[in-house]
Amino acid sequence: MDTPLRNVRTNIVQSIRAFRVSDLQEAAQGLGHHFLYANLSSAQSKQDVLDLIAQQFTFPAHFGKNFDALYDSMTDPLHKSGPQPGFIVVLEQVPANGKFDKEAREQLLDIFRDAADYWGERKVPFRCFYSFL
Q1: Is the Cα dihedral 107, 112, 117, 122 positive or negative?
Q2: What pTM value is reported for the model?
Q3: 53, 70, 93, 119: which could form a disulfide with 124 (CB 3.0–4.6 Å)?
């Protein structure tokens, strides 16, 4: 299958750059992977970011809304629910402001890097693409 991901390694977090969200969604569908998308353009703070991710990824109501809970939601329960085909995650327009500064952005991306490592150890493709607002 010719896919826009043919030159993208399987367990990575990277800028969305030249990729279009619709192409990534189509690639996920073609590969049989889960597609998780969050548009964070209305977020101003860490709590806003976590709320939007939880809502748009359809996390359960008991989601803890902190970075540890985000990591847990992206890994262990999914692993325990059975074999996973792979993941393509898009975090669009991550805020870049005083309430969600460079350190907070790096912490957020580190969660997804750790999730990519987690799935990589299990031989499950996990690609995360992001853009900043």
Answers
A1: positive
A2: 0.93
A3: 119
Count of beta carbons in the 10 Å neighbourhood of residue 55: 11
Number of domains in the chain: 1
Please report, for the domain that includes residue 103, its CATH number.
3.30.370.10
- Report the sign of the C-alpha dihedral through residues 25, 27, 88, 12, in that order: negative
- Tokens encoding 124: 């499950």
Q: Which domain holds residue 93?
A: 11-132
Please report which residue ranges of the chain form alpha helices under DSSP H.
21-31, 46-56, 67-74, 76-80, 102-121
- Which stretches of the chain are assigned E, i.e. beta strand? 11-15, 34-39, 87-94, 126-132
Phi/psi class of residue 124: alpha, beta or left (left: φ > 0; alpha: ψ in -120 to 50)? beta
d(CA 96, CA 73): 24
